[in-house]
């Protein structure tokens, strides 16, 4: 009897173990892990709505994992390499693309809906990084404080703007990196001198856009590095035209945001289905009123609030900065 009882108990344990493994396997088949930046997964960001739409359309759950701003996101991917517990990385931009692609960690996948991508959005010659939205870097100003905003990069160095500008660190923040690339492109070999002249105007340099823009809204300074599309948020959510983008005579760089499939992804089929979905209405219609950027595909209607999102007359296509230039920037800040 004792032997029979032991055999029965062992059989029950075995059946439970097999059942558990089966449930785990089925759960894995219906999930997807995406690494992104903090604001994408915030309460007001697009992550929640996009996950719900993807679940509705494809029956797959998305597990978001945020890693600070875009620069920090890339650093984490490069650090963990093939051990990264992610299927997709979403939120890198063109200034981070070279480092991301040079790592060999991303796999080419051309979405079924790739033909919808706007022609002006570069795919880097392949589909290891796929565009999902874009905007233009700009300085947003508080029109209740500044009646006459700056009209050029050079004007930012004026005594009129002493301690009035909030910037982001180019080593951790994609807007911060975009601004450094902007200044290097415009000033070429004199960019270091520009940053020395700019220093008195800078109140603080934050690690990420969230922190910097939050300080701006608290009234710590009347100018902040952001996007031409940022004023649309205030028009939509607050009915306010107080915050506006200053247009500069030198032109403005475009920022293109990308998502990429990791070669070591555990849920590769689910990841490919997400990248297909990313270029459809279920994803793209969410972007304007949550990520406050332009959709990456044709045919997505923009809300009326985007009348406040002025497009620059001149678009700058700037090259990424080098590691040497990043280190030189850091030395100037000391």
What does this structure look like?
With 334 residues, the protein is an alpha/beta fold. It has 2 domains: 25-134 and 255-301, D-Maltodextrin-Binding Protein, domain 2, CATH 3.40.190.10; 135-254 and 308-332, Periplasmic binding protein-like II (D-Maltodextrin-Binding Protein, domain 2, 3-Layer(aba) Sandwich), CATH 3.40.190. 37% of the residues lie in helices and 20% in strands. It has helices spanning 2-29, 47-58, 70-80, 94-102, 174-187, 191-198, 209-217, 230-238, 268-278, 281-284, 323-332, and strands at 31-36, 61-66, 88-93, 106-107, 130-142, 165-168, 202-206, 223-227, 243-246, 252-262, 294-295, 315-316. Strands 1, 2, 3, 4, 5, 6, 7, 8, 9, 10, 11 and 12 form a 12-stranded mixed sheet that branches. β1 (31-36), α2 (47-58) and β2 form a beta-alpha-beta unit. The radius of gyration is 23 Å and the shape is globular. It starts with a helix and ends with a helix.
């Amino acid at each position: 009897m004792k032997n029979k009882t032991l055999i029965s108990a062992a059989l029950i344990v075995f059946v439970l173990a097999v059942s558990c493994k089966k449930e785990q396997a089925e759960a894995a088949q219906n999930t997807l892990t995406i690494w992104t930046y903090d604001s994408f997964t915030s309460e007001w960001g697009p992550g929640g709505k996009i996950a719900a739409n993807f679940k509705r359309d494809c029956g797959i759950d998305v597990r978001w994992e945020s890693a600070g701003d875009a620069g920090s996101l890339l650093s984490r991917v490069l650090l963990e390499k093939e051990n990264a517990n992610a299927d997709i990385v979403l939120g890198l931009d063109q200034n981070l693309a070279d480092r991301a692609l040079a790592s060999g960690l991303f796999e080419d996948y051309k979405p079924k809906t790739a033909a919808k991508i706007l022609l002006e959005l570069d795919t880097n010659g392949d589909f290891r990084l796929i565009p999902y939205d874009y905007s233009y870097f700009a300085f947003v100003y508080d029109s209740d404080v500044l009646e006459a905003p700056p009209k050029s990069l050079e004007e930012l160095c004026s005594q009129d703007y002493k301690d009035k500008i909030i910037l982001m660190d180019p080593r951790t923040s994609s807007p911060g990196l975009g601004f450094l690339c902007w200044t290097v492109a415009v000033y070429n070999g004199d960019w270091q001198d520009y940053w020395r002249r700019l220093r008195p105007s800078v109140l603080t340099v934050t690690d990420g856009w969230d922190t910097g823009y939050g300080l701006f809204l608290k009234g710590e300074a009347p100018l902040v590095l952001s996007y031409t599309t940022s004023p649309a948020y205030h028009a939509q959510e607050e009915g306010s035209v107080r915050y506006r983008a200053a247009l500069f005579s030198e032109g403005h760089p475009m920022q293109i945001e990308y998502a990429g499939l990791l070669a070591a992804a555990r849920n590769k089929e689910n990841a490919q289905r997400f990248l297909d979905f990313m270029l459809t209405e279920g994803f793209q219609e969410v972007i304007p009123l949550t990520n406050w950027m332009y959709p990456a595909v044709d045919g997505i209607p923009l809300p009326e609030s985007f009348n406040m999102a002025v497009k620059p007359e001149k678009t700058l296509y700037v090259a990424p900065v080098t590691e040497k230039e990043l280190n030189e920037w850091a030395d100037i800040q000391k």
